[in-house]
Write a structure and sequence with these properties.
With 197 residues, the protein is of the alpha/beta class. The chain has 7 helices and 8 strands, in the order αββαβαββαββααβα. The radius of gyration is 27 Å and the shape is globular.
């Protein structure tokens, strides 16, 4: 019995030491009599504390020119989009989002072009008569094989109404590389996207 108690005490002390060394924040208070971590006090970071990663992100997201001094942008007119590399569309549409640009879609928007809806909110994105979004499964680079992970990443980035439309048509797992699911101008207007003037 005594041997089992000594073994258990050694195991608990080792576990406590490992837990203490592997967790740096918040610091733990150790009870010297039992060798087990206690949660008697917790030291919280000071109000307004930002770790280095948070400070870096804040610096990157800070506008260079105050918004009040930025002149309003002319709407960006897209005469459709043929798709292409997803990463290039992310970069392009992220830039439009950061600029606060309004976008007019005035033609068919195929494949990765549909990501415009992931970046530009409804109040700044209109669809002209005859425009549409054409969805299909993403494909692996230099291949005709579907890339399910990329397809799912695109799917979750779309606004809820577009995800619901995709779900009603079979969902992202049913998409193929070869065929397009077309969301026409009238479908887009019906879920609240404005009609371009």
């Amino acid at each position: 019995m005594r041997r089992a108690a000594v073994t258990l005490a050694a195991l608990l002390a080792t576990t406590a030491a490992h837990a203490q060394s592997s967790i740096g924040w918040p610091p733990r208070v150790i009870d010297p009599e039992e060798g087990l971590p206690l949660y008697k006090s917790t030291r919280l970071p000071p109000a307004g504390y930002l770790d280095p990663d948070q400070r870096r992100l804040l610096a990157l997201s800070a506008p260079i020119v105050p918004a009040a001094l930025t002149p309003p942008l002319e709407p960006v007119v897209m005469n459709g989009g043929r798709g292409g590399l997803i990463a290039e569309h992310h970069v392009r549409f992220w830039a439009l989002k950061r600029q606060g640009a309004a976008v007019e879609m005035r033609g068919p928007c195929w494949s990765a072009c549909t990501l415009i809806t992931s970046y530009i909110p409804k109040e700044r994105l209109c669809f002209a008569e005859g425009s549409f979004l054409a969805f299909h499964s993403a494909r692996a680079p230099d291949s005709v094989r579907p890339a399910l992970q990329s397809t799912l990443e695109m799917y979750v980035s779309y606004p809820a109404e577009i995800r619901h439309w995709i779900d009603r048509n079979g969902g992202p797992y049913k998409m193929t590389v070869e065929t397009f699911w077309t969301m026409y101008d009238r479908d887009l207007w019906a879920i609240g996207y404005p009609r371009c003037k």
